[in-house]
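Provenance and format

Records in this collection were gathered into a single text stream. Each protein contributes a sequence line and a token line. The two records reproduced below are adjacent in the stream.
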Amino acid sequence: MTDGMLDRHEAAYVAFDRFPGSKGAAVHIGQMAGQLFDHFGGGLLAVLGGGGLPRYQRDGGIEIARFDEPIPNLIDRAEAFSAWVAGHLTPHLGTLRVCHVRDPWGALPVVTAPGRRHQVVYEANGLPSIEMTHTWPSAAPATLDKVRELERLCLERSDVVVVPSAVIAGAVAGLGVPEDKIRLVPNGADVPERPPPRPAAAPDRYLVYVGALQPWQGIDVLLRAFARLADLTDLRLVVCASVPERRARPLRRLAERLGVSDRIDWHHTLPHEEVAGWLAGAELSVAPLTGCARNLDQGCAPLKILESMAVGTPVVASDLPAVRELMADGEHGRLVAADRPADLARAMRVLLEYPDVARAMGERARRRVGDTLTWSRSRARLTEVYKSIA
């Protein structure tokens, strides 16, 4: 028995992610699911909940169901989510035409549904077979092997695989997915008509980092680079973390050891609309991604870079293949070798010393997003995917 569902939907979007939320995944879900439901006139959204979010709600023709069982173990929780999704899909199997998924936990009940008549779009923003070795390093090899098998099964049985970058397209093809089954739908950003308002608490002059705090994000590299700018006494670092404060404790201790803790402003789980103001008011936005397999083998398409570019803030980022798909060195900001605090500090210092050059880069970045990397363009591409299979 589902939570009061009455309609029989033609479309469903399933994600083992919390929605809404402060992470980039929630922004992406909002755009992709929104386009799916616009195309089909509504549908079922099955996501993670918790934190006071209702288990069930209705927004016009969209029904939102949230899984919020407090299961500590990740694999146990993922398996419970799969069973929960299967129960919520059952009433719609006779009418469902397209189901859009973004991970193997949500995909399994969709691709194995009894008497399946619907098409499946698998959105591969990341590959758990690669990512879990970084996010869950204590996982047993046998567990990771099972995850790889599940991932391959779901990719194989999906009708089309959507990817946000050419790098991850190559990774998916490396798993045996035919290239003609892979469709590129880049991430996007909205260019505001007017600059977002500057936050009341913003310092006069600051660098900004936006995102989660996992090791592969390279925040430790940024802190070490920032320590090399100690002579710029009026410069602060603002960290807009998409995770709770407790997750920042190791990094705060590192900041103390480096002697920069009193020059850093920490903000946690800010609403997405507030983050735009912090990005727009910054001298520079920094994306110090590490050169690990998570960022090189499967790639990424960081929304933080696109959203910085969209508000005209130049970006200093790690020189990784997926990042080069979004921005060019010396044109929209600076690309530096990953995992090198000295190189990162040097690139930031040069742009800070030449603000006219930095502003020109930011303006070119804003134009690039407006011309080629908007959400409306991405959503139009996704619509073409739906038309091709439905």
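Adjacent record:
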Amino acid sequence: MTRTTDGSAGDADYGRIGGGYRQYRRPEPAFARAIAKALGDARTVLNVGAGAGSYEPTDREVTAVEPSAAMRAQRPDTLSTAIDATAEDLPFADDTFDAAMTTFSVHQWGDLERGLAEVRRVTRGPIVILTCDPDRVEDYWLAEYAPEVMATEARRYPALTRITDALPGDTVTATPLPIPFTCVDGFSEAYYARPERLLDPGARQANSAWSFVDELTARRSVAALRSALESGDWDRRHGSLRIRPNYDGSLVLVTAAPR
């Protein structure tokens, strides 16, 4: 597995794009509640691809794993220091943890199947995965203005069946998570009713898919969105979203429990 100078082990270099991540990608309370419920009564929890610590429960003993130095540096002092390791090679004994979690991370792993096998090896109970269904990613309105970005995003996320197949001994369920109007975790669909937010370079940088298109393509996409907003075309096509309290997008919570 190739790692960047920063230590990032997936396809994104967070040493380059992760500087403002904590500002734009804050934990959404509705998602945090769903994750906590899925973790059940687990006392010890492994957080893989922990990033800046979003969604880590504070009422349990959490061990965080994060390969990117830039992301580890953004973790608040109230959380434990993250271990520099990858999902595919976890430095723990078998059955160490009651449960495991990973949020917006599995699409970054170099080897999904090996990573999930490792997480299952070290986890006795449920594995909770916050991810997106690639079959629904391009249904979002942003695909009209930034088609290359959204096509890249759809290619990166693993199919839900692939996650299920990688955990053959588990009962796996996938539950769609509605995205609230005021969502504070700024992945692209979080701005379903606030399209102007994606004109902010920092907001786009906190969505790694933008880093996989060339500068000319990115600028063309932003210009198309800005033009649609200024002309009123976005509102004519999608304005009803501005008053919708939540949005059913591609976000899913996958829970895998031993049979």
